[in-house]
Amino acid sequence: MLEGAEARPGAGQERLRDSFGRAITDLRISVTDRCNYKCVYCRTGNEGAQYTELPVAHYLRMVRILVGLGIEKVRLTGGEPLLREGLVEMVAELAQMRTAYRHDGTKLEAGEMGEPLDLALTTNGHLLEKLAAPLKAAGLNRVTVSMDAVDPETFARITRVPRSYERVLAGVHAAQAAGLGPVKVNCVLLRGFNDSQIEAFAEFSRREGVIVRFIEFMPLEEDRTWTPEIVVRMDEILGRLNAWRPSCGVPAGLVPLPAHAASETARRYTFADGVGEIGIIAPVSHPFCGHCSRVRITSDGSVRTCLFSQSDHDLYGEMLRGGTDEQLAAYLRRVVMKKEARHHIGEPDFEKPSRNMVHIGG
Ligand code: SAM
Q1: 357 alpha carbon to ligand 1 midpoint, in Å?
Q2: 103: which of 151, 158, 166, 324 lies 20 to 30 Å off by Cα?
Q3: What distance in angstroms lies between residue 305's CA and the mean position of ligand 1's atoms?
Q4: How remote is the CA of residue 362 from the centroid of ligand 1, in Å?
Q5: Tens digits of residue pLDDT in 235-285
Q6: Tens of pLDDT along 166-197?
Q7: Which residue's CA is the nearest one to ligand 1's atom 26?
Q8: Which of 316, 262, 266 minimizes the C-alpha distance to 293?
Q9: Is 80 in the pocket of ligand 1 (CB under 6 A)?
């Protein structure tokens, strides 16, 4: 049920925070539930899209309201976002938006100009070769490409799409040529499946000039195959890379890099010669929920306050019931107050989330 904006003086001026005081500055929005890959650890391959997608104008309205509340970064995801018609035009619209708060968290005065949003995209890269330049021209700042192997055969076994590696590599090169670099490459490691690729990915980072980020596998898969044993944990990845010796006489050993921000999810490393960058995102072994600054909108317009939430909040339903921007802003403030303290992966009380990754938007 919608309520009017809070009557308390100044309440609408505070930036979006949850009940633990975490400022919510990052939005991930899924623009389609469809995907052209069937990655073995993500989807069964039997199910297609399970949720609808909204007209782009409705996503833009949601983003505009959230930016008014303090969102500074927007990441477009899916499903596979490059399948979405109107994506380039959507980016162009997002690029016109300006932040509503100063760096110190105070609200800008009327007439005071905010900064452009940080606009990023997560994609499997299959359609990136053609779309990288138009997306950059429209105002996209950064792209993250998901690649779970740098060996073409293993890659095709994971995506279940023939010759996918060549397509994605061409997409990475196109993104670099378009000025979307440094491109981030995200890799989810599964024991016994692609964990032999760790050192090859390090070489790939150095050779291709991309930031490789290893992500621990989370229990968010469609076919429910997650076990603690399948997860290749941060300490093991670090051990392997510390023992690895890059070619051309560079001594073995990772060199830590400083974090860009407290809310940064990746621990960052380079090598002794400064060539290549490896990030490790360890939600299972080293959770970072205490610094979480995120909220997500699914393709069908629901808000998720955590990847592991047990339910969604039907923002689109509130819109359809005629909510004004002020009412929707008040609704979003209430929803964010329900953001979970942390996830419970690996604990006896862990409950499977109500949606899996591909239907949330990673
Ligand atoms: N199709 C796009 C892509 O491939 O990047 C965006 C959606 S995809 C679901 C987003 C990311 O979630 C991918 O990097 C994928 O590897 C990751 N992912 C999927 N299931 C995961 C899981 N159970 N644990 C960790 N990451 C997962």
Answers
A1: 6
A2: 324
A3: 18
A4: 5
A5: 999 999 999 999 878 999 999 999 888 778 899 999 999 999 999 999 999
A6: 999 999 999 999 999 899 999 999 999 999 99
A7: 217
A8: 262
A9: yes
